[in-house]
Automatic annotation (TrEMBL):
It comes from the Bacteria. This is Uncharacterized protein. Residues 52-81 are annotated as: Disordered. It comes from Thermaerobacter composti.
């Protein structure tokens, strides 16, 4: 999943899932940490200002990369126009 989509997590989630998770010996904390280190998951500052779509979404001119739409730009399972 992390290879197919841009995955962003707030710093607070990273602290809870990775830092605290490692302290408790949770194996999934190590998996998350490796994905962050490999830049498959990006930790973002989730301050008061929401991130604009252009800051987190891939270039829309690159067809089929990082999108969740299917053929014709429709969501999978969506009815035809």
């Amino acid at each position: 999943m992390v290879r197919a989509f841009a995955v962003l997590i707030p710093e607070a989630v990273y602290r809870e899932a990775v830092v605290e998770g490692k302290a408790h010996g949770y194996e999934d904390a190590l998996v998350l940490e490796r994905n962050v280190q490999a830049r498959r998951i990006r930790v973002v500052n989730a301050g008061d200002e929401p991130l604009g779509a252009e800051a987190v979404l891939p270039d829309r001119n690159r067809r089929g990369h990082g999108t969740s739409t299917g053929p014709g730009g429709r969501l999978p399972g969506a009815p035809s126009p």
